[in-house]
Amino acid sequence: MLKREKKLERKIAKERIEILFEMMEKMKYEDYELARRYIELARRIAMKYRLKMPKKYKLLFCKKCLYPYKEGRFRVRIRKSRVIITCLNCGYERRIPIRPRRKKNEHH
Ligand SMILES: [Zn+2]
């Protein structure tokens, strides 16, 4: 395959992922299963074309069970300089640093 074609394919794949996430956002309060399915598809496309899942999308769903985060289905806590998101579907916890790590005296 031509290099140019491959580039175009990846571009199309990226657009498809964007569309899937848009659809997912619209659908997650109506059909939770379908919304999950969109995420699954988007992930499959990303893997196939070796695309990195954009950060803005990564935070929209649980990476273990793939269900989108929505009201009543996840819990957010802030501890020290981290956000802890707990998925209430599968219990998976993810920790996201709020700021880039700085050297601080954190001895107790
Ligand atoms: Zn989960």
Structure, explained:
Helices cover 43% and strands 16% of the residues. It has one domain: Immunoglobulin FC, subunit C (Single alpha-helices involved in coiled-coils or other helix-helix interfaces). With 108 residues, it is α+β, with helices and mostly antiparallel strands. Helix 1 runs antiparallel to helix 2. A hairpin with a 5-residue loop joins strand 2 and strand 3. The site of zinc ion has 8 residues, from loops.
In a few lines, what is going on in this structure?
By secondary structure, this protein is α+β, with helices and mostly antiparallel strands.
What spatial order of strands do you see in the largest sheet?
A: 1-2-3
- Report the CATH superfamily: Immunoglobulin FC, subunit C
> What is the succession of H and E elements?
HHHEEE
Q: Please state the CA-atom Rg, rounded to the nearest Å.
A: 17 Å
Q: What's the shape?
A: flat
Classify the fold: give the CATH topology.
Answer: Single alpha-helices involved in coiled-coils or other helix-helix interfaces
**How many structural units, i.e. domains?**
1
